[in-house]
Amino acid sequence: MSVWAILVAAGRGERLGSDQPKAFAKLGELPLLAEPLRRLDDSEWIDAVVVVAPPGWEEPAILLAEEIGAGKVRASVPGGETRTDSVRAGLAEVPEDAAVVLVHDAARPLVTDAVVERVLAPLSEGWDGVVPGLPVSDTVKRVGSDGAVEETVSREGLWAVQTPQAFPVATLRRAVQSGADATDCSGLVAAAGGRVKVVPGDPLLLKITTAADLARVASLL
Ligand code: CTP
Ligand code: MG
Questions:
Q1: Of 186, 206, 216, which is closest to residue 111 (Cα–Cα)?
Q2: Least crowded by CB within 10 Å, which of 83, 90, 132, 156?
Q3: Measured on CA atoms in the order 92, 76, 115, 155, is the torsion positive or negative?
Q4: Spacing, Cα 26 to ligand 1 middle (Å)
């Protein structure tokens, strides 16, 4: 059973506000992309990796893979306008005989083998997708555009979902071809009628959105 990972790194990083796309902002000595790429490449569960790079950055992504010795990288392709477009571009590089695909945000550099194993394991029970998540611990409010609280939302059963997310390849292909859009792949699979399981995520899998997040993750390397 071959497992392919798609590392989506094609976002512009507007909220980070650096000169380069977010994947090429410096995290320590190297571009941010190096950290999740090295970790996925080192995973004993992953056979091959596709990098979805910001348009025009496919070659720098390959050079970076070579620099860090990420030998499982099979392709570096330009991403699209939305995250879903970028996932679709990555999936086009995954061969027909691949069984499982793992989609991971480059913006979450601190991915571990343990979380990869946790999302892969339940697929053998017939789930259409498996995602890591953490129960929401803050009090959640719905707030109007004027800043006024409209409602306290019960956090009972609410989970914040992360990546990497695992799917049977055929299931994710069908979901991305449906034309729906979502901020994560499991949303696409669920919209297509799939059953998605949540497993424990990792608090260190935080997503780099702002410069403060970048500094925080750098301090955790
Ligand atoms: N992503 C992508 N293609 C897009 C948009 C996002 O591959 N068209 C990827 C990003 O590179 C990131 C992940 O999806 O790894 C999550 O997106 P986000 O954190 O929103 O990153 P950006 O879109 O780059 O940031 P911003 O929204 O601030 O511009
Ligand atoms: Mg974005």
A1: 206
A2: 156
A3: negative
A4: 16
10 CB within 6 A, ligand 1: yes
Identify the three-state secondary structure at position 158. Answer: coil
Is the whole-model pTM more than 0.85? yes
Per-residue pLDDT tens for 31-49? 999 999 999 999 999 999 9
Q: What is the pLDDT of residue 7?
A: 98
Dig out the tokens for 121 from the structure. Answer: 């394991």
| C-beta 15 within 6 A of ligand 1 | yes
Question: Looking at this protein, which amino acid is placed at residue 114?
Answer: A
CATH value of 3-220 in 3.90.550.10, 3.30.460.80, 1.25.40.890, 3.60.15.10: 3.90.550.10
Ligand 1 in contact with 67 (CB < 6 A)?
A: no
